[in-house]
Structures are given as C-alpha cells and as structure tokens.
Specification:
It is built from seven helices and no strands. Helices cover 80% and strands 0% of the residues. The chain is an all-alpha fold and 197 residues long. It is globular, with a radius of gyration of 20 Å. The protein has one domain.
C-alpha cells in the first residue's frame, strides 16, 4: 500500500487508466478481427478494472494520509471512509455480475419486479455517488489538514476536492502533493501554511 502511494503521477496515470484502456482496445481489435461475439462482456470487465484500480489508489491514499494525520494529533473517522469506499466496490461488482449472468440467460422481458429492481439500482447509484464524493472530501481534507497541522476548512481544501472530480487530470496535480507528504526527508509538516491574517 505504501509503494502505491509513493508512485509518481505518471505511473499512477499509466497503471489506473492507460494500461486497462489500452488492453481493452487491443482485445477489441482482436475480437473484431476474429469475429468473436463477446464484446458486451469484455467492456464492463475492463471498466471494472479501471474503477477498482482507481478505488484502490483512493483507499491506500486515504488510509496512509489518515496515519499521517494521527501523527499530527488530529483525527477524522477512518471507518466511515473505508465503509463508504467499499460500498461502490461491492455495488459495482454486483452490477457487473448481474449484467453478465442476465446476458447469458438471454431474458429480455420486462416484468414489474424487474422494474422495481431497476429503481433500486438507480437509488444505489445515487448512494454510490455520495460515497465517492465523501471519499474525495476525506482525502482532500486529510491532505490539507496534514499540511496545515490543524483541521482544514472547506475553502482551504475545496481545490483538491474538485481535482478528484477530474481525476485523470487531477492525478497529475494531486499525486505530487501526496508524494511530498510521504517523502519525510524533504517535507516538514506545516512548511506551506499560509500566513494567518
């Protein structure tokens, strides 16, 4: 977990986004050339690899930043962060399994219980969005609180929070800040605190 957080921004970007997407396009090219009809199953599989890699990066970052936060004498609820980050993983894998097995059964009829199921899936999606937004909040607040040696206010970590929304681009800005915190010989806590007015 420690090595995952200490990777450079370009390595994280390659590992989480470029490698799975590149492998997907390579396999799609092979499938199209060989006329194999499993493209519908392969796409969600590679999407899940990207999402799980991204969530693994967020998990390791959040847990290790929380450890650093405890060293400064501050505290945030780690169990809530872990639970909220685990929820989208379980939900997404469940949907992936449902999609694969539903595709194999070949049922196309819509019955009222299935419509209710789709409504529950929609509600689950909204809850997962909330869980992911909480994870963004947790990591951004931990990062700024470690830098400032006090619990940061929203206006102090809002920029980091919104960088998570544009994550492929945000990694190029967020990961160097995280690397700076975890390279203990170069970084002294509180060295970039803005002057109090």
């Amino acid at each position: 977990m420690q090595r995952f957080v200490q990777l450079r921004h370009y390595a994280i970007f390659l590992l989480i986004f470029i490698a799975p997407v590149g492998a997907f396009f390579l396999i799609v090219a092979l499938i199209v050339n060989l006329n194999i009809p499993i493209l519908d199953t392969i796409g969600p599989f590679f999407l899940s690899i990207v999402m799980l890699g991204w969530l693994a990066w967020m998990y390791s970052t959040g847990v290790l930043l929380h450890r650093k936060l405890l060293e400064t004498g501050l505290h945030m609820k780690l169990s809530l962060f872990k639970g909220f980050l685990l929820t989208p993983c379980i939900y997404f894998l469940g949907l992936l399994m449902y999609a694969v097995f539903d595709k194999q059964s070949g049922s196309n009829q819509r019955t009222p219980p299935e419509e209710l199921f789709l409504f529950a899936v929609g509600l689950g999606c909204f809850f997962c969005i909330y869980c992911i937004l909480y994870s963004f909040y947790f990591i951004a607040k931990c990062l700024k609180s470690i830098q400032y040696k006090r619990i940061a206010s929203f206006k102090e970590y809002a920029g980091l929070f919104f960088l998570f929304w544009v994550l492929p681009v945000g990694i190029w800005i967020l990961q160097p800040k995280i690397n700076k915190i975890f390279s203990e010989d170069e970084y002294e806590l509180g060295s970039d605190i803005p002057a109090q007015q």
